[in-house]
Amino acid sequence: MTAGADAAARVLRGRTVSFRDDPRVVGPDQAMQSHEDGAVVVSQQGRILWHGAFTDLPREHAEAPCERYGREVILPGLIDAHVHFPQHRMLAAPAHDLLEWLERFAFPEEARYAAEDHAAAAAERFLDKLVSHGTTSALVFSSVHGMAADCLFRAAQRRGLCLMTGATMMDRNAPDAVTQDAEASARESAELIASWHEVERLRYALTVRFAVTSSEEQLRLAGELLADHPGCLLHTHLSESAAEIEAVQRLFPWSKDYTDVYERFGLVGESSVFAHGIHLSERECQALHDADSMVVHSPTSNTFLGSGLFDIEHVGAARRPVRVGIATDIGGGTSYSLLQTLAEAYKIARLKGCSFNAFDGFYLATLGNARGLRLDGEIGTLDAGRWADVVVLDPQATPVLAARQELSESLEDMLFALMMLGDDRAVRAVYVRGERVAGRDLGEG
Predict the structure, then answer these.
(1) How much is the pLDDT for 3?
(2) Which DSSP string do the residues of 145-207 spell out, in sequence order?
(3) How many of the other CB atoms lie within 10 Å of CB of 405?
(4) Is the Cβ–Cβ distance between 325 and 274 less than 8 Å?
(5) What is the CATH classification number for the domain harbouring 24?
(6) Of 7, 179, 299, 322, which alpha carbon lies 20 to 30 A from 444's?
(7) What range defines the domain where residue 280 resides?
(8) SS (H, E, C) 228-240
């Protein structure tokens, strides 16, 4: 596609921030593109035509309607790399640990998604919550019921969202209401792939809950499906809690470690996305690096459930860096806001003696997640040709933020305050494919 072939529908003017690369690797100056008075030109087809300083706006776009955001921050739409649709109302459900939490809350709640009317209504509420918090793309766990994934795909398609999901595969160690025979699960996944994969902005994610709830036969079938459909993602959990790791060792006594279980069945590759990865060994990190897989940091979930503290410098070590993403992990996570999620990631990094600044955080929530999900050609930046999924954040959205921003002396200071103190109240506007879908009323600029 040639971006310049489209006519401009509107210009978004404000302080623009977008990333070209990982600031932890190349440094912020090389990684980031920012304009204090910037502009993003959106085409009638919902793509970005141009991004740069407003003073350099190409003449052919000068007459396009301009939506002015002053010193508010225009960013690529935020991307959530791991979130659970059937758990959207389960925030702050207490339990001793992950496994008890699954048994007491998650599995009973997910059983409700056998009813189509429940799943269809929940899909609308779930997507409303994502978008209102500035999230325009997500990799989503559904339930074991194929119909529930179908409902979510349909709801996302109507909204024009970029969304990846699939029916969850579980055939043991969970209640009957949320398990399914391995072959039946594989057939249903294949049918959903045929119906939804690469339809408009949707992609299918083969979704293995975790090794504890899948037999070797189910893992084998999932690996065969992934091999047959290499454009799909593989979405699962890995090394979240000590008790979970012990259970995996009991169930798969032949394995070297948790990651080795997935390796054995062809589930570790460049399209594999592993949530958590808190307790990974050096061998596992090397294997994930070699496969170019992504590990998704889910900080509010990890602290809430007491699962452990993610070590971003261990996982991303320069000698064998593993791709790292960021996620809310609703409903183990405690906020739909990726801003609050980044705040918790910062605190965890400090507790682990790691560095983590605002540029690191906003990179992960935009281009970093897009790269890990193999979507950086479509989303994650304000570059021409990308979908015009955009979030506008107000650095002074609350009295606390406004007072704090009086002390900000740089872009990093301002973004750091947004990251640490912001939430959905800071979301001024959300655009999907260039159309405004959420946020406060437009100002006059």
Answers:
(1) 44
(2) -HHHHHHHHHHHHHHT-EEEEE-EE--SSS-GGG---HHHHHHHHHHHHHHHTTSTTEEEEEE
(3) 18
(4) no
(5) 2.30.40.10
(6) 7
(7) 78-336
(8) HCCCCEEEEEECC
Residue 109: CATH number of its domain: 3.20.20.140
pLDDT tens per residue, range 408-426: 999 999 999 999 999 999 9
pLDDT value of position 445:
34
pLDDT at 95 over 90: no
- Single out the residue of 349, 324, 354 nearest to residue 419, CA to CA: 349
44: left (phi over 0), alpha (psi -120 to 50) or beta: alpha
Confidence of residue 299 (pLDDT cuts 50, 70, 90): very high
- Same domain (yes/no): 22, 110: no
State whether residue 121 is helix, strand or coil: helix
Amino acid at position 312, single letter:
I
**How many CB atoms within 10 Å of residue 120?**
16
- What are the distances in angstroms from CA 50 to CA 38, 61, 161, 386, 429? 11, 9, 21, 10, 19
Beta bridge partners of 429: 392, 439
Question: Measured between alpha carbons, how far is residue 16 from residues 36, 67, 93, 216, 354 in Å?
Answer: 7, 13, 38, 49, 28
